Amino acid sequence: TKKGVKKDTKKVVTKPKEEAPPPP
């Protein structure tokens, strides 16, 4: 999950990674 959030951190920077569900 952490590696998935790493690449999504740019688009998810506005919302907490904990609340941001991983993309399908």
Commentary on this structure:
- Residues 1-24 are annotated as: Disordered.
- It comes from Mus musculus (Mouse).
- This is Titin splice variant.
- The protein is globular.
- It contains one helix and no strands.
- The model has no long low-confidence stretch (mean pLDDT 62).
- It has 24 residues and is an all-alpha fold.
- It starts with a helix and ends in a 16-residue tail after the last helix.
- 29% of the residues lie in helices and 0% in strands.
- The longest helix is centred in the N-terminal third of the chain and has 7 residues, at 2-8.
Order of helices and strands: H
Share of helix among residues? 25-40%
Mean pLDDT: 62
Portion in beta strands = under 5%
Helix count equals 1
3D shape: globular
In short:
Residues 1-24 are annotated as: Disordered. It comes from Mus musculus. By secondary structure, this protein is an all-alpha fold.
